[in-house]
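Fold this sequence, please.
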Amino acid sequence: MTSPGDASVGRFLTVSDTAEILSITVSEATDLVRSGELPAIRVGASGLWRVERTVLEAYIDAKYEESRRLALWLQADFAALPELSGGAIIRPSD
C-alpha cells in the first residue's frame, strides 16, 4: 500500500492512489475532488484528475485536526450550565 509521504510515488497521485491511501472508494475520492473538498488538478490531454501528495497530506492533517476539535467539543462539560426554557433558568438537579 502506498502512503502520502512515499517519495517513490512521485509528486502527483491518481484518484485511485488517493482512494487507496484514504481507504475509500475511487468514487468517494472523485466526489471529494469534484466538490473541491480535496483540491486537485486535471492533467494531460485526457484531463485525468491528479492530487498533489503535499495537498493530500495537508487534507489528512486538517481532518485529524477537525476530529480533535470535535472530540474536545463533545467532551465539554455542558451539564453544569443552566438551560434557558421559556425565559426561566432551569438548573440541573443534584
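Residues 42 and 49 are 5 Å apart (CA to CA). The chain has one domain: 10-75.
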